[in-house]
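Hi R.,

As promised on Friday, here is the backbone we talked about, encoded as structure tokens. Could you run it through your design pipeline when you get a chance and send me back a sequence?
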């Protein structure tokens, strides 16, 4: 069977991924409607009923909007820190089967070990994850205004990494739909990573073991999948890291399933 990892969708309007090992079935964030998540899992022959838990990075709606329908109704355990759990319950008016962790802590779900770490973003207590499975490690590093030495170190053991490439600086500056205050928020040290910032982060993170780099959380208006791909893959090629397979993700559809350890 192996360990299978599928990004069900990623973008500034919704984020959700699915990880399956022999013993454990997890969602990482649930930022689409319950119906959408159910449909996308069904394409893999899976359903929310079979989940062992949902890991939550932070309470912004593009990461949690399907939680009430999925985790609330089915009583699927929600793995989050206290501040994030309280913010979600207050916003959604639902009480979840919370499994609380302290930010920075490591915990197990079946045969999976989840390491958590703090990221700089404008939410209550946002985190990234490094998920260690029997077949390899999957890292999540999205929704951060800038990288720190800590986050780089924590995701460096990843074999597959989801890294935010939110916007192209020029497209964001030229965008006429967003007010200046929103642009300031996105660009701040607690906002989102640009393509250039993602490329710089990838350069620091890359190891011989990193094989798959998914560019995630792309802005629909202020980025293009091919642009994000180009900026990051050119940087990796320049430093001799052509072994990393770079792929942009989409909010509209799931990415092809990655079988780890193959
Ligand atoms: Zn966010
Ligand atoms: Zn987000």
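Update: got your reply. Pasting your designed sequence below so it's all in one thread:
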């Amino acid at each position: 069977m192996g360990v299978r990892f599928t990004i069900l969708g990623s973008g500034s309007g919704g984020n959700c991924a699915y990880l399956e090992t022999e013993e454990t079935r997890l969602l990482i964030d649930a930022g689409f409607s319950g119906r959408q998540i159910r449909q996308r899992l069904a394409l893999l022959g899976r359903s929310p009923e079979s989940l062992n838990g949902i890991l939550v990075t932070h309470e912004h709606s593009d990461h949690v909007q399907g939680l009430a329908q999925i985790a609330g109704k089915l009583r699927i355990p929600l793995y989050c820190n206290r501040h994030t759990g309280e913010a979600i319950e207050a916003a959604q008016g639902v009480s979840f089967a919370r499994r609380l962790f302290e930010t920075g802590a490591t915990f197990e779900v079946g045969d999976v070990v989840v390491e958590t770490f703090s990221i700089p973003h404008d939410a209550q207590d946002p985190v990234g994850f490094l998920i260690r499975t029997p077949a390899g490690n999957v890292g999540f590093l999205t929704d951060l205004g800038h990288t720190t030495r800590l986050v780089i170190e924590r995701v460096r053991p990843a074999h597959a990494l989801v890294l935010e490439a939110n916007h192209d600086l020029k497209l964001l500056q030229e965008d006429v739909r967003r007010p200046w205050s929103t642009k300031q928020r996105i660009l701040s040290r607690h906002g989102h990573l640009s393509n250039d910032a993602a490329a710089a982060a990838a350069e620091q993170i890359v190891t011989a073991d990193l094989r798959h780099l998914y560019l995630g959380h792309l802005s629909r208006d202020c980025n293009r999948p091919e642009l994000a791909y180009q900026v990051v893959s050119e940087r990796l090629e320049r430093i001799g890291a052509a072994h990393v397979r770079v792929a942009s993700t989409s909010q509209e559809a799931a990415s092809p399933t990655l079988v780890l350890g193959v």
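One thing I noticed while checking it: The pocket of zinc ion (ligand 1) is lined by residues 58, 60, 121, 123, 143 (CB under 6 Å).

Thanks again,
M.
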